[in-house]
Amino acid sequence: MKILAIETSCDDTCAAVLENDCLLSNVISSQTDLHAKWGGVVPDIAKRAHMENIEPVINTALKRAHLIMEEIEVIAVTQGPGLAIALGVGVNKAKELAIKYNKKLIGVNHVEGHILANLIKNKLGKPDREIEFPALAMTVSGGHTKLILVEAIGKYKVVGETLDDAAGEALDKAAKMMGLGYPGGPIVERLAKMGDKNYLKLPRPLSTQKNFDYSFSGLKTSFYYQIKEWPKEKIGENLANLSATFQDAVFDSLLIKFKKATEFYKPKTLLASGGVLANMELRKRLRKLAKEMKTPIFMPMKKEFNTDNAAMIGVVGYYKALRKEFVKDKESLDRDPRLNF
Ligand code: KG4
Ligand code: ZN
Question: Measured between alpha carbons, how far is 112 from 341 in angstroms, rounded to an integer?
Fold first, then answer.
């Protein structure tokens, strides 16, 4: 089954071509530079850039896969959650192509995409990972932070989520407070390596509560009030210490709840994914936790499978196609910015 996948939920215009769950090509046109000077994603700018890039990105993905549109059988597109006007560009393009070329169409949940990013295979079918169910997935990005019980592929139950900011969003906001660029996560990671993580005292919100929900806004506020009176030079001299302290608090919060939920649900496999999983320190800490819990853990194989991409949308499309979950009336497929499980 040859699949064309499209993803435009935020600030990356992405297309991928797969043969079943094996990736033939993966194209990402990042808009980071366009949004950086505004310190975050500007929806109108994102929409315009998606509209300019969507066709070339799809054409490049097809070309790199050595296929033409006529040879594609299924088109999978991110339906939500995400920025409404950004999602609309991908959904409209997918509909247009599916109708024009008479292809099957599948709407995909972006968060399911992040979970199944763990199952992206290369052209040779590697790695051949087998998830044992139930699995417990943690997806951590700039738009969402969720703990999801995976009973089977396609069968999900959200068992915990952030009540306010996403973990990546918290890292981005802290970076902004320190006068660093956007997105903050990778910059904070780089600086944190050289800093003292005990430099400030920051809370671990909700860590003593029994549920598996997260909160990052208290952490951000505490950070803000502790540095707000500081002269610029003091912040500048302590960027590494501040980054290390903030990152450690975010990762502790993530790990505390992941561990609690693992003890409660006793999953057979752990999964972790989302943009923040590009962080090597977080990956290291998750591997250590998995060892301690004597449970295997999967994390996306490549850096570009953590942050937004269409390969992960294609894998969801593949499993939905196996279950024949095609859109019945192609014209009616609509973006759903608040799509949930
Ligand atoms: O999954 P993603 O590309 O987009 C959303 O669905 O939100 O995630 C983007 C988020 C941003 O908040 C960014 O700062 C964070 O992932 N991120 C990182 C790293 N790379 C990206 N956070 C920590 N360390 C990184 N290396
Ligand atoms: Zn995402």
Answer: 9
Query: Does 40 contact ligand 1 (Cβ within 6 A)?
Result: no
**Pick from 142-156, 200-214, 258-272: least confident:** 200-214
Write the residue with the smallest CA distance to atom 1 of ligand 1.
275
Does residue 41 line the site of ligand 1, with CB under 6 A? no
| Predicted pLDDT at 40 | 82
Mean pLDDT along residues 292-306? 96
Beta carbons within 10 angstroms of residue 165's beta carbon:
21
Q: Is 111 in the pocket of ligand 1 (CB under 6 A)?
A: no
Could you tell me the distance, in angstroms and rounded to a whole number, from the CA of residue 140 to the centre of ligand 1? Answer: 8
In the three-class reduction of DSSP (H, G, I as helix; E, B as strand; rest coil), residue 55 is classed as helix
Closest ligand (CA of 41)? 1
Tokens for 122, please give them. Answer: 């290369």
Q: Phi and psi for 5 in degrees, rounded to 5? A: -115, 140
Is residue 213 very low, low, confident or very high in pLDDT (cuts 50, 70, 90)?
very high
236 CA to middle of ligand 2, Å? 31
Q: How far is the CA of 68 from the centre of ligand 1 (A)?
A: 32
pLDDT of residue 256: 97
Q: Which of 192, 187, 143, 118 is nearest to 41 (CA)?
A: 143
State pTM to two decimals: 0.96
Query: Using a 6 Å cutoff on CB, does residue 300 contact ligand 1?
Result: no
* Mutate which of 14, 41, 139, 141 for ligand 1 pocket (most atoms within 8 A of beta carbon): 141
pLDDT recorded at residue 39: 81
Instruction: Name which of 31-45, 70-84, 272-286, 294-308 the model is least confident about.
Output: 31-45
Phi, psi of 17 (to 5 degrees): -120, 135
Alpha carbon distances (Å) from 61 to 58, 302, 314: 5, 18, 12
Total Cβ atoms within 10 A of residue 125: 11
Tokens linked to 93 = 């393009």
Q: Which two tokens stand for residue 47?
A: 């929409």
